[in-house]
Design brief:
about 280 residues; alpha/beta; seven-stranded parallel beta sheet; 11 helices
């Protein structure tokens, strides 16, 4: 349970949100959240709604164990964010659905699709594409590979009489580099492009990241269920399924989480309790 913000925190959040609305009029979001704690951990629960039962209990126990540890801990339920996103973007979604193409980049976008309210996205012609982010030694995204995207999108376009707009639906919008890479390689330059995600990081500059665009070139509008604004550092954000996919990312997350904001006694039983779902997720 979060502590109530102080009047000064309320003032700072209001100030930042006003600045965002003034500088970025093409960004739309349901809720704005200023994260002032440099040690904050944000986690998207992208598992409970898919599997329920035992997994819900495991998530609840993990969250309870994390409370009171160094650094604030916030858990976001993916279906709740997607409901907010669907309501916010409804005017866009109901406009010409028969000629709208939805693009899902990567595995995170698939979770977003599944968490959306039933019947909202199913009405559209859609295509899933690979989006492999290339990061430098410090973890910054310096490029995005999208193998086969031109051919995959061209195949989907053939299913439509014409394309009036393209909407990229992702799990998180951060720097916008994935969106730009998709648009640049899709071969649909003369069509309006839009993007949406349950979570978006605010493009306002902060210490350590001062070169951030007020909009993403070539995109008419961007939508988010929640807009996250950091104060001095990039906000730490992960989804629960990342603990299960294996490989380098999972090992990195476990190493970071253990002894930082949870203990081996809390995180390891959680991973084991839902490890049996990993094959389903993959």
């Amino acid at each position: 349970m979060k502590d109530l913000p102080s009047p000064s925190e309320d003032s700072r959040q209001a100030q930042l949100e006003m600045k965002l609305r003034s500088n970025c009029p093409r960004l739309f979001y349901e809720r704005f959240e200023w994260v002032s704690d440099p040690d904050a951990h944000l986690v998207i629960d992208d598992l409970s709604f898919r599997f329920g039962g035992e997994n819900v209990q495991a998530v609840s126990e993990l969250v309870a164990a994390c409370q009171g540890k160094p650094g604030s801990f916030s858990l976001y339920q993916l279906p709740s964010l997607c409901r907010s996103l669907a309501e916010l973007s409804l005017p866009l979604l109901v406009s010409d659905p028969e000629s709208t193409l939805i693009v899902y980049p990567g595995e995170g976008a698939e979770s977003t699709r599944l968490a959306f309210p039933p019947g909202v996205l199913e009405q559209f012609q859609s295509v899933s594409v690979e989006a492999r982010r290339i990061k430098d030694a410090e973890g910054e995204v310096i490029g995005v590979r999208t193998p086969g995207i031109t051919e995959n999108i061209a195949t989907s376009v053939k299913q439509l009489a014409y394309v009036s707009k393209v909407i990229v639906v992702d799990d998180v919008i951060d720097s916008g580099k994935t969106l730009l890479a998709i648009k640049q390689q899709a071969g649909l330059d003369d069509i309006p492009w839009y993007a949406m995600a349950p979570i978006m990081f605010s493009p306002l500059p902060y210490e350590g990241r001062t070169k951030f665009p007020s909009s993403i070139p070539g995109f008419e509008e961007l939508y988010a269920g929640i807009m996250i604004q950091g104060e001095k550092n990039p906000v730490d954000l992960n989804d629960l399924s990342s603990f299960l996919i294996g490989g380098e990312k999972t090992q990195r997350l476990l190493k970071k989480c253990i002894n930082q904001f949870v203990t081996p006694q809390t995180i390891i039983p959680f991973v084991r309790s839902v490890a049996k779902l990993s094959e389903v997720i993959e």
